[in-house]
Amino acid sequence: MAGTRSLLLLPGDGIGPEVMRQVRRYIDWMARKRGIEFTVEEGLVGGAAIDAQGVPLTDATLEKAKAADAVLFGAVGGPKWDGLGFDMRPEAGLLRLRKELDLFANLRPAKVFDALVDASSLKPDIVRGLDVMIVRELTGGIYFGEPRGIEDLGNGQRRGVNTQVYTTAEIHRVARIAFELARKRGNKVCSVEKGNVMESGLLWRQEVTALHRAEYGDVELSHMLADACSMQLVRNPGQFDVIVTDNLFGDMLSDEAAMLTGSIGMLPSASLGAPDADGKRRALYEPVHGSAPDIAGRDMANPIAMLLSLGMALRWSFDLHTEADMLEQAVQNVLRTGMRTSDIMQPGMARCSTSVMADTILRELDKLAA
Ligand code: IPM
Ligand code: MG
User: Where does this protein hold NAD(+) (predicted)?
Assistant: First the structure.
């Protein structure tokens, strides 16, 4: 269905706009060199939306996100908006998108590129060849559970409350994604919770086990407590294939896994909803890194995570696997030449800017497409 692929770009704050600019260049490249066209719209989110429109995400932008085949999201937040209440913070724009688009499954691959084995803080032997997929539940758990709030108890005391809550259906739908993914990879799922202290964790373990027994007996399933998992991720990350876990543990474990790869500036993610009658899923793609206000506007950020996020969109939303492979190959080839943005800089390598990294990737794509 050429010509009907629609993308909504939400660059956001900090380094979001400058890495998103490189995505635009790649989209132009696709049209020029591959004859693959996207209809592209752009909108505001996060602090940029607060400043211009008074809220972190307007209803109009939300409607555009619902209508698009895929949303590409940069990053949100910064010191300027730190003092605002929860509903008005830049992050609220992202959380609203996740919730209202019902993007319950967050796929966060942590893959070590050969050329970056030495950039990890762990020994090369431990991280070489690492390829873990974290599937994080994204629309439930303590992020959204009720009751929540800060209550004034009167006597100079206050009480802060959040609620961890999961239902069978919420657990099954995300576990299903993990099992399906595992079948296409190493065929192993490790389900992670704190069933030793939390009822919601115990339910998680029981429901994943039940679904496994009923439908996915061919996949190897193990269970791990979240604290043990965070330890095993640095001790022996190679034991993992797919990890499935809740919203909060997934948030933490995915940052940890990302750092194993040397830089959080390298990692993309996909947030997916349920397939509709035509098999199409709502989807949002974003780099795992944040808005990095300290380096924003200086042409220093690593554009690779953002570009690879578009790569995930090519795979999951547009079935453009050849193009996605080519983009990943181009990134690997460029890293092999020694080109590095500051975040992955190492002795003996050549430091480059955001735009030069993107230039070089596009030139490499020219070669691969020739
Ligand atoms: C992430 C981020 C978000 C989260 C923030 C920005 C709300 O840390 O995507 O991992 O906690 O989910
Ligand atoms: Mg996080």
Answer: 78-91, 290-302
Round to whole Å and give the CA distance between 311 and 320: 9
What is the DSSP secondary structure assignment for residue 238, as one 8-state letter? Answer: G
- Strand, helix or coil for residue 153: coil
Cα of 253 from ligand 2 centre, angstroms: 9
Domains recognised in the chain with CATH numbers: 1-111+263-370 (3.40.718.10), 131-260 (3.40.718.10)
Q: Which ligand is nearest to the CA of 141?
A: 1
283 is in an annotated binding site: no
Q: Clarify whether 114 is annotated catalytic.
A: no
pLDDT in tens, 228-262: 999 999 999 999 999 999 999 999 999 899 889 88
pTM: 0.94
pLDDT at 4: 86
CA dist., res. 73 & res. 75, Å (int): 6
- The region, left, alpha or beta by phi > 0 then psi within -120 to 50, assigned to residue 348 is left
- Which residue shows structure tokens 């609220």? 92
Q: Are 290 and 75 a contacting pair, CB within 8 Å?
A: yes
Nearest CA to ligand 1 atom 4: 251
The whole-angstrom separation of Cα 157 and Cα 141 is 27
Residue 110 CA to residue 108 CA, distance in Å, equals 6
* Residue whose C-alpha is closest to residue 242's, from 187, 307, 297, 174: 187
Q: Which of 194, 246, 285, 343 is catalytic?
A: 194
**CA gap 282, 338 in Å, rounded:** 37
How many CA atoms, within 13 angstroms, populate the side-chain half-sphere of residue 156? Answer: 0
Structure letter (DSSP) for residue 55: S
pLDDT at 35: 96
Residue 59 bears catalytic tag = no
281 annotated to a ligand binding site: no
Mean pLDDT, residues 292-300 taken together: 97
pLDDT score, position 2: 46
Is the peptide bond prior to 293 cis by the omega test (within 30 degrees of 0)?
no
Q: How far apart are CA 89 and CA 126, in angstroms?
A: 39
Q: For 154-168, what is the mean pLDDT?
A: 97
